[in-house]
Amino acid sequence: ALLIPHEDEYLGEYVPAHNERLHWLTGFTGSAGAAVITQDKAAIFVDGRYTVQVTKQVPSDLFEYRHLIEEPALDWIQDNLTAN
């Protein structure tokens, strides 16, 4: 699985435009979130502030919408990644 956080390589919360990887990949412009891509599935994780915004910016046919706190990305990975 590939994990794409909102933060840049220095884990800064203020990300310069050229490091907006999550926005580039998903279209999501919120200030917090992450995406996980596997061979068969993809999900985007946002907190409660962005539950409406994510549905308007990120295509549901490509990404499952998940709550960052209620279902952390690592839990989703464990549930959706096969052993092989």
UniProtKB/TrEMBL annotation:
Residues 17-81 form the Creatinase N-terminal domain. SUPFAM superfamilies: Creatinase/prolidase N-terminal domain (SSF53092). Coiled coil: none annotated. It holds the Pfam family Creatinase_N. It comes from the Bacteria. This is Creatinase N-terminal domain-containing protein. It comes from Vibrio parahaemolyticus.
